[in-house]
């Protein structure tokens, strides 16, 4: 079964040294708990506990420049490596030292110039379908994520809004499926009502 990966965005920065000069350490939050997202066609909240140490221990996570497979910046292989992940009360914090490579140098320059200020992380939910819940209120869709199965990458990115990410696509698919189900239920209710009328008419004859 193919795993659905999703992405989310958070701010990043370059750590400053004691003398105020920037270092090569890039850091920021990959995930914020209990903070509603912007309206992406739905509003999403990731709950505390959705990510725990066991998720990190079973995940092979890369830091990639703009999600490029060939632009590796750091790696956390089952909890160990150059990509440091720290679970905090308010979310998942990460840091890594930008490598002395073309992509490492480019990343630091783009951050300094303000052209990159966000990071995106890719994840998947458990296949049992119990990792998230959807609700609808006043015409808006709300999604609450209570359990993440695996993390795949953390990527400093140029664009702070991704209308075509797998997150948006999967959410749209879920909403479309829900609408289709509602239409089917409405159709079934109409058929039941028609059947009731037919039964009453047969009983009169």
What does it look like?
Residues 160-172 have low confidence and may be disordered. The protein has one domain. The protein has 205 residues and is of the alpha+beta class. It has 3 helices and 12 strands; from the N terminus they run βββαβββββαββββα. The radius of gyration is 23 Å and the shape is elongated. The termini are far apart. The chain has helices at 53-57, 102-112, 166-204; strands at residues 6-16, 22-32, 43-46, 60-64, 72-77, 80-81, 84-88, 91-97, 118-124, 132-137, 140-145, 150-157. The strands form 2 sheets. It has a 9-stranded mixed beta sheet. A 3-stranded mixed beta sheet has the order 3-11-10, with no helix packed on it. 25% of the residues are buried.
Shape: elongated
Rg, rounded, reads: 23 Å
User: What sequence of helices (H) and strands (E) makes up the elements?
Assistant: EEEHEEEEEHEEEEH
Number of domains: 1
Uncertain spans, ≥5 residues at pLDDT below 50? Answer: 160-172
Give me the secondary-structure category: alpha+beta
How much beta, percentage-wise? 35-45%
Largest sheet: 9 strands, mixed
Q: Look at the structure and give the mean pLDDT.
A: 80
**Number of strand segments:** 12
Q: Counting H and I runs of at least 4 residues, what is the number of helices?
A: 3
Strand order of the largest sheet: 6-5-4-12-9-1-2-8-7
Q: Whole-Å distance between the termini?
A: 55 Å
What level of helicity do the residues show? Answer: 25-40%
